Amino acid sequence: MTIPSEAYAVRPGQGRTIDLGVASMRFIASGETTGSAFTVAEMSGTAAGPWTVPHLHRGFEESFYVLDGLFTFSVGDERIEATPGSYVLVPRRTAHVFEAARGGGRFLLLMVPGGLEEMFVELASLSGDAIRDPAVRAAVSSRYDSVPV
Q: What tens digit of pLDDT does each residue of 41-83 get?
């Protein structure tokens, strides 16, 4: 792991953005820029419904901080309604999925450690809504620490 030795800044409108069909993801800090310590991304979209398939990560924790909209997070057996200002931590090895209410929304996503963003890049290179297609997601996820459940 290479520890960054210089300041790193991403201004509004900067950062690589990918289209995942149901939502877009803007990378604010990738594993590459943080020495694989973490990844920060912003997800936004207008679609209602699930933005992914139910899944878990064995070696990653994910945190979500809602900026706009209303999201329902299913984490294990718990359902969490999250409005702007809400924070949700998904522990490792915990099944989860999230869905947006009507009008969609926007949240910050923190992945620890960094690197899982490469799965999203691969999903974005496929057909429009690959992130929500269980068969496609299972094939891509097999190369990353994202296990559909």
A: 999 999 999 999 999 999 999 999 999 999 999 999 999 999 9
Strand partners, 26: 17, 42
pTM for this entry:
0.91
CA torsion angle for 86, 146, 91, 110 (degrees, to 10)? -40
pLDDT of residue 132: 81
- Amino acid identity for residue 110 in this structure: L
Residue 31 counted as domain residue:
yes
Say which range, 9-18, 73-82, 109-118, 119-128, has the weakest mean pLDDT: 119-128
Inter-residue contact 119 to 92 (CB < 8 Å): no
- Report the number of distinct structural domains present in the chain: 1
Q: What is the CATH number of the domain that holds 98?
A: 2.60.120.10
- Interaxial angle between packed helices 134-141 and 117-124, expressed in degrees from 0 to 180 and rounded to the nearest 10: 130
